[in-house]
What we know:
Blueprint: H1 2-24, E1 34-36, E2 41-42, E3 52-53, E4 67-73, H2 78-93, E5 99-105, H3 115-124, E6 131-133, H4 138-143, E7 150-154, E8 159-165, H5 175-188
Amino acid sequence: xxTFAxTFAxTFAxTFAxxxxxxxxxxPLTAQADPVTVATRPAPALASAGPxxxxxxxxxAAQRGKVVVLLFWxxxxxxxxxxxxYWNDWAxxxxxADVAVLSVHAPETRSERAPAATARFxxxxxxxxPILVDNDAHVWNAYGVQSWPTEVLIDRQGRVRExxxxxxxxxxxxxxxxxxxxxxxxxxxx
Length: 190
């Protein structure tokens, strides 16, 4: 019986130790835009001390009745740069329609804080959507954003419905298609 107990104890200890090591291992890092589970909630105001660039100042109240695609980005982020084409496509497609594409430039580094440099970046990259400069991170914090880039989908009633964090086509994932389908689904809601 002692031999069985010793063998069982050793086997259990090895198995348990391996399980602990596996559980403690960090998840692989990806930049793919994964949906973030969010509780439907009223969308926080776009309240920041920063200026609006690339379009007139606006509010979410002014967008009521439209689906809002709210983009959080910063100009030196490579994953954000990879998403620019999708964001521009949506801004062009929905121009004058029932979808507003708005963005919040939330700088990660000190060098990204200059509004003039962000305006120049917008011109050089042909950005078609308004940009709120959020140097004080008020809007970033109000939405609980944790990474660049992040897309937040807001329904016609002004409620946050979905968030996507990361690159929209990481390694050919095609996540931009999922986001586009969700925009259309929110448009279909009355």
